[in-house]
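lol ok so funny story. i was supposed to be doing the assay writeup but got distracted and ended up predicting the structure for this chain instead. priorities right. anyway since i did it might as well share w the group, maybe its usefull for someone
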Amino acid sequence: METSNISRKLTSRFVAGLTLDDGMRVCEALTADGILSSLDHLGENVHDLSEADAAREAYLAALDRIAASGLPTTISMKLTALGLDLSEEAARRNTAVLVARAREIGSRIEMDMESSEYTDRTLAILREMHARGPVRAVIQAYLYRSAEDIDQLCKEKVPVRLCKGAYKEPPDRAYPGKQEVDANYRRLMKKLLDDGTYPAIASHDEAILNEAMCYAREQNYQPDRFEFQMLYGIRRALQNRIVKEGFRLRVYVPYGAAWYPYFMRRLAERPANLIFLARNLFRG
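and the output, tada:
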């Protein structure tokens, strides 16, 4: 599947390509359009520490290319790609190397959030890294705990990216319905716009994005106070409109040979993702 030309036609809308060169080409094109970017080297839940070391080296290579290019690009990574399932200390050590390099070149580490099984461990490592260099947390609006997490992160001045959440979670941990998730997202979004440290509003929901833009204007918040984030290949016309209206937008650019498990997990996590991706194959 990962080498099939037919499969590549399907995934090329959403995955930059197999190599770092592919990812960098997309970031360069986005920069030319006035859009920020974040590179994600695909791969997570590694099976041994040698794979974790390889992921670390891939991200270091990405940071080196970012530094050489001068692009306004960050990297997004998951702790399970750096060995969290195998050794918390190894994941911490690998992350520290990336944070140090990001600090040297003036970039940032976007520390992706995974299922709620990892939330406490991810936030613990993130807080430690925040004292060392530029990192941003990700908080998922569908978890009941997220309001408390955001309150604390705002007090600690930790930058936060707010997303809805895509992992299948038990009903005692997450809001079960879209309406409830959307309502919580709106509450947390306004909290971050009011009190957050350079937050990122990550969504493809046009109604929510319109509300965020209106709220920012009403409160007279300057565009450099926050940014929007969206996925590569999703709602391109909407991405362009956000930029034209004077707001910052960062696009998440995945690349790498492990696109197949990434792509299929996005579909498997929630059935609505399949419909969402199918619709976006035929829209701008």
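The domain at 5-280 is CATH 3.20.20.220 (TIM Barrel). The first strand starts at residue 36 and ends at 41.
back to the writeup now i swear
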